[in-house]
Amino acid sequence: MSERVVELEVLRYNPETDSEPHFQRYSVACREEWVVLDALNQVKENLDATLSYRWSCHMAVCGSCGMMINGEPKLACKSFLRNYDGVIRVEPLAHFPIERDLVTVIDDFMAKLARVRPYLIPKQEKPVSEGEYRQTPAELNKFKRYSMCINCMLCYAACPEYGLIPRYIGPAAIALAHRYNQDSRDGGRDLRQEEIAATEGAWECSFVGACSEVCPEHVDPAGAIQQVKIKSTVDWYTEHLMPWLKK
Amino acid sequence: MAEEVSRKPYVREMTYRWIFRHPRYLRYMAREFSCLFIGAWTLMMVWGLKQLAEGRASWEAFLEMLRSPWSIAFQCLALGFSLYHTVTWFNLTPKALPVQVGESFLPDAVIAGAHYAVWAVLSLVLLKLAGAY
Prior knowledge:
The complex is a heterodimer.
Chain A: E1 3-12, E2 22-31, H1 36-47, E3 66-69, E4 72-75, E5 88-91, E6 98-100, E7 103-104, H2 107-115, H3 137-144, H4 154-158, H5 160-164, H6 171-181, H7 189-196, H8 210-214, H9 221-241
Parallel strand pairs in A: 1-5
Antiparallel strand pairs in A: 1-2, 3-4, 3-5, 6-7
Helix pairs in contact in A: 6-9
Chain B: H1 23-53, H2 56-66, H3 69-96, E1 100-101, E2 104-105, H4 108-129
Antiparallel strand pairs in B: 1-2
């Protein structure tokens, strides 16, 4: 198995001693087939135990190890070292405050996620004895793509609108709201519209499209947001021009 | 018992440099920027209508102005930007308007292609109305 020495430049920030972050260089002996997360683990285990970063599954499922790798939002567990030449610069996800080293403060995203009610709100509650809520494959395909989100927040780090206008609800939360709005079993759209059809919701998006480009699960949040805009526009016209159509 | 760790999150200020972070942001800004040229060209046409309403001499002067090298350079730029604007937006239409047929969705090329087709038909109708053929 071939090895090579990888130069990692990691943004460090210790809230107890530093007034601002600074880069620290590590020369790490790595195997060719490793990903950036392996290199960070190697640093943590053998070179510098004080380095902090989040990770869990190492298989692009948990969404914990999102970070900026050479300026691009990536999952560290999905970024193969062989795809990078020279020094690899690793920074915490853009647009989020830095808690420590590569760990960011994600409270804002968590609060926004809760606001859009990303869970099934059945049209009509029924007891378990009445059986499951059934769905056809076509009904499933209508939203399946948007259900693949792993909440890794790469889309927030890619979105300049979120960076410039922090009150913007952002790509993943709107895509998840859209996922439930598209679900044939769901009846919670009116509640979610309060959040996502507002100025701070879909209308803050100017369709940069970066969220969809960086999404490791190919969720296409940008597409979801534009669909929310169209549906919200139809809602507005229905309400104001054809009120009799609305109950 | 664990020692309590104090928190002091560091907020990075966002500067204009995000535009240069990746080519996609430059492409986006070019698409946004294109509206200035399209807007300016439209204003020029409105000005032309006003000149037309004011009589033959004004209209001839307007046409003469259109033929100046600066005007031709501007119109070439505006044409380039409006083509870029149109193509980039049309290529994004499959994201905004997915059409589900049964279990699957129509291919992106069909959605974007339909927009190009309507664009072509409308352009031909306009050219016909203008007496170009």
